[in-house]
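Progress against Task 2.4 (sequence-to-structure conversion) is shown through the following example record, which the project officer requested during the mid-term review.
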Amino acid sequence: MGNERFSRIILLVLSITLHNIPEGLAVGVAFGALQDGYTPEGLMSALSIAIGIGLQNFPEGAAVSIPLRREGLSRRKSFFWGQASGFVEPLAGLSGALLVVYAEAVLPFALSFAAGAMILVAVHELIPECQQNRSTQPYSATMGIVLGFAVMMLLDVMLG
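Structure tokens generated for the chain above:
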């Protein structure tokens, strides 16, 4: 495995792992906000965030596992690293829920941080990376990102 190629894969794994922290915070904050006063709308909002982030975690795990497998790691190790990159998310979710319960003023900042970090990873890391192999299927990976965004917006509208 080439040193430069391996470094790029490690960067991708670390960026997705770091990206999972604000995702977990977003889910935790959304559910922690229900502590103040339960409303069906609040629950639907928290559920839509959790479902949306949960759905997009499948391709994120694949984005970690597939390059590692392609570089020669075993199926088990590739799967393990894909799962390990997402393990920070429930821990961050718990932290987010506790933060919002004990410091409600943090809520807008935590959600803004989560959204900004997700957009940063997509724009700065994933979109340029998926444009590397334009000769075989130009822009298909970018269209996958756009489709994922459209599904998230659809979920947001449908679930409240």
